[in-house]
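=== RUN LOG ===
request id: a7f3
mode: sequence -> structure
chains: 1
length: 365
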Amino acid sequence: MIKTEEFLINMGPQHPSTHGVLRLILKLEGEKVIKATPVIGYLHRSLEKMAENRTYHQYIPLTDRLDYVTSMAGNFAYVLAVEKLLDIQIPQRAEFIRVIMLEYNRIASHLLWYGTLALDLGATTPFIYAFREREKILDLFEATCGNRLTYNYYRLGGVSFDLPENFIEYSKKFLKLLKEKMPDYEDLLTSNIIFLGRTKDKGIISSEEALNYGLTGPNLRASGIKWDIRRGEPFSIYPQLDFEIPTGNKGDIWDRYYLRLEEIRQSIKIIEQCLEKLPSGKHKINLPLKVKPKKGEIYSRIESSRGEMGFYIISDGSLKPYRVKIRAPSFSNLSIISKLLEGEKVADIVAILGSLDIILPEIDR
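=== RESULT ===
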């Protein structure tokens, strides 16, 4: 018999496999994980505290830095909360543009996740395929607002710029192309015997566990819970749109993988409807640079690519928020990692962690 003994090892904090500066303290017995303790805080930048020293307009660029892979979501959640405090209605054209941009960003985020999960498991081709299409979405963003990662595009009362002249034509061509490429993504991984061996029955999250740990977004829906804020507590123009909420069965890595592919298809469907229904009119209303909401508090949430992104804001009637608290999906989604890794092999740690699709800036906020 080979005698083994427990020992501690640090995984991280480094960027590639831990998806940011995450540290995992692993207690191992051979290749088996006895205990895994996540350590966060290496990226802390006091984004919530900074809000108290900035006007409501000035804080918008900082929301880009929460989930920088889906920067539109941070913008959207924040301006929606402030607009509720101000009790203002924005033009319908602006509502449609906001949803188009959020869904494009959701697709771009899921493509990045698809490619990096495959890369974590040793496959290069899916990463290259996914980034090929993702770059075209970033071209659309750049043509609209001038940026490719952190956009600072949403404004109180609408969006900073109207859509460029060729946006709709380019979008329709791209969406047609993306639908043609989706089978390629599936051919590479969905039934790949190596991928199945690394993802099937690994990192299983039951529906009860998902709810108890406060998971949201694709990680919750992959466990069979049909909850999406776009349907459960609709915001913007989502009640006017026809789309499905895909769910998984087992809640393993493979379910989380396949569900995100289905979400890309639903986002395509949403964008196509928005392009067809896009009304004319203004892209924003004129507001003073210094706005003063009435005294009060608000919590507003949206469905980002990682789950529930929410802002709780307290106004004391001044030019700056009295307090801002951010509900970031990655923070709650990471909470289950200790439970998931217990009893697993070291080789499966990266696959399980990658399947949760966390991003550290919105955890260390």
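=== NOTES ===
The first strand starts at residue 6 and ends at 11.
The chain has a mean pLDDT of 96.
=== END ===
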